[in-house]
């Protein structure tokens, strides 16, 4: 759609930035914190780039005041961060750890002191290892109760001050990397049956958490953050258009329909049933999912890239566990599901050094699709560019990041003109941080952190990059000056 004049962003638009506990905090065993599945996984040789861990990360646990002060100077309206389950319940259930609760109390209060709205992610992938040992974590339905118990503890403690809650971060990623690709804990490969079962457990945990929150704080705003890659059909060949429909049902709507409608897409379900991998649902589940969906306030979207779907022969490519984690451009491989689709590169679009497609218009596509399919407001909970940054004379010039963010914000503005209700835009990330599989060299932040892959390297000093000052202006002008 074309509009002669843009209405711009809403007045109360939340300009934000995001992080996740494991990627920034460090202090992996500080003050009674328990061991998480990631604390364990990163110690398995070959799992992460140059064996990097989040043991120290960027030490946000000890430097949060300095980080929040920089946010305040920038004028940030909201800061999205996650809570480490293992700081609250070191064993996943049982005894609560007061020191852990206190840390997030302090962080929230520090944000509020400067008028920054905390946006809290309940779960950003770091599950207590004790639950893995007790009953295999997400594989066992028991986790639903433990998850809800943990979430309720957060609502009780912080619900008076936190108005925006995100239940799950990228359920589609942690489950596919954990049970299909073997690249996240628990490191299983091609276990399709369990993959769908685990997802059902996560869906129930999400739904029951939404219900619990709304009972305690009916006015709180809640949603899940989905890693949404809108998909283009390869060309006008009908088989390729059908490949796109298959991709959407199995890779996008499979999750978003649950969050927004409380049901699985029919054709995806039929396909999984025919192959004997549909999840087992218990009596009453469908009702709970529907009830929660009716109470969800927004769709959280982590947007990085679009993809292409092309028909994939039954003998065609499958899913591989290879990925460009080194930043050597051009090393990514085409992946697919035999008989359905494969995802070739889009030669109309440039890519990052890690072979992620750069497609600003995709962010508008996300908003448009969510608006017409679900009629829900959108929170962009992540969007950003992972790049190599260099310090020159104590400064970091990152025009590539500014160009990336500018182009995406321009498209987001168009989405607002299109009538999409966009509530917030959080860049990934605020400070540089650990990129799970790609180490510290893949940097996303507005604030540079002096550290390399080696745990003992760097001063951990913070230096605002050029993009920091640029975003400050964007916030000041409510997105008018880009
Ligand atoms: C999202 C995650 O998948 O993308 C973040 O929610 C992650 O935790 C971000 O860091 C960027 O991905 P990566 O692999 O480049 O770190």
TrEMBL record:
Any Pfam family: Glyco_hydro_1
InterPro entries: GH, GH_1_N_CS, Glyco_hydro_1, Glyco_hydro_1_AS
Active site: 382 (nucleophile)
Regions that span the bilayer: none
Molecular function via GO: hydrolase activity
Keywords in alphabetical order: Glycosidase, Hydrolase
Family from the record: Belongs to the glycosyl hydrolase 1 family.
Protein name: Glycoside hydrolase family 1 protein
Organism: Allocoprobacillus halotolerans
């Amino acid at each position: 759609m074309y509009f002669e004049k843009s209405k711009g962003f809403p007045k109360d638009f939340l300009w934000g930035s995001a992080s996740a506990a494991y990627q920034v905090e460090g202090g992996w065993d500080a003050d009674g914190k328990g061991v998480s599945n990631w604390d364990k996984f990163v110690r398995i040789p070959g799992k992460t780039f140059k064996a990097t861990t989040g043991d120290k990360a960027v030490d946000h646990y000890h430097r949060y005041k300095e980080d929040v002060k920089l946010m305040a100077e920038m004028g940030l309206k909201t800061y999205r961060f996650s809570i480490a389950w293992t700081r609250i319940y070191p064993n996943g259930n049982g005894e609560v750890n007061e020191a852990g609760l206190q840390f997030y109390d302090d962080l929230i209060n520090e944000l509020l002191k400067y008028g920054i709205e905390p946006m809290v992610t309940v779960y950003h992938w770091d599950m207590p290892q004790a639950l893995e040992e007790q009953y295999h974590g997400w594989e066992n339905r028991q986790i639903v109760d433990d998850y809800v118990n943990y979430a309720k503890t957060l609502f009780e403690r912080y619900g008076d001050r936190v108005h925006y809650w995100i239940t799950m971060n990228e359920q589609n990623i942690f489950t596919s990397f954990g049970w299909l690709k073997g690249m996240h804990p628990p490191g299983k490969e091609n276990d399709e049956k369990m993959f769908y079962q685990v997802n059902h457990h996560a869906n129930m945990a999400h739904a029951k958490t939404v219900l619990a929150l709304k009972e305690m704080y009916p006015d709180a705003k809640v949603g899940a953050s989905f890693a949404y890659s809108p998909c283009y059909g390869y060309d006008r060949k009908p088989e390729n258009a059908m490949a796109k429909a298959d991709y959407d049902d199995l890779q996008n709507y499979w999750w978003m329909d649950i969050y927004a409608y409380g049901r699985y897409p029919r054709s995806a379900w039929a396909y999984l049933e025919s192959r004997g991998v549909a999840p087992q649902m218990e009596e009453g589940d469908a009702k709970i999912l529907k009830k929660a969906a009716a109470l969800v306030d927004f769709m959280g979207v982590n947007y990085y890239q679009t993809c292409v779907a092309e028909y994939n022969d039954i003998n065609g490519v499958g899913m591989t566990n290879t990925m460009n984690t080194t930043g050597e451009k051009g090393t990514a491989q085409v992946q697919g599901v035999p008989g359905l689709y494969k995802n070739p590169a889009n030669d109309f679009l440039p890519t990052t050094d890690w072979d992620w497609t750069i497609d600003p218009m995709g962010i508008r596509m996300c908003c448009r699709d969510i608006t017409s399919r679900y009629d829900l407001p959108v929170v962009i909970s992540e969007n950003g560019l992972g790049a190599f940054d260099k310090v020159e004379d104590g400064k970091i010039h990152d025009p590539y990041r500014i160009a990336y963010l500018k182009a995406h914000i321009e498209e987001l503005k168009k989405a607002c003109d299109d009538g999409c209700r966009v509530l917030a835009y959080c860049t990934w990330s605020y400070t540089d941080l650990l990129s799970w599989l790609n180490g510290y060299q893949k940097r996303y932040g507005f604030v540079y952190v002096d550290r390399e892959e080696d745990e003992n390297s760097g001063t951990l000093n913070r230096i605002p990059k050029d993009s920091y000052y640029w975003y400050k202006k964007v916030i000041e002008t409510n997105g008018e000056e880009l």
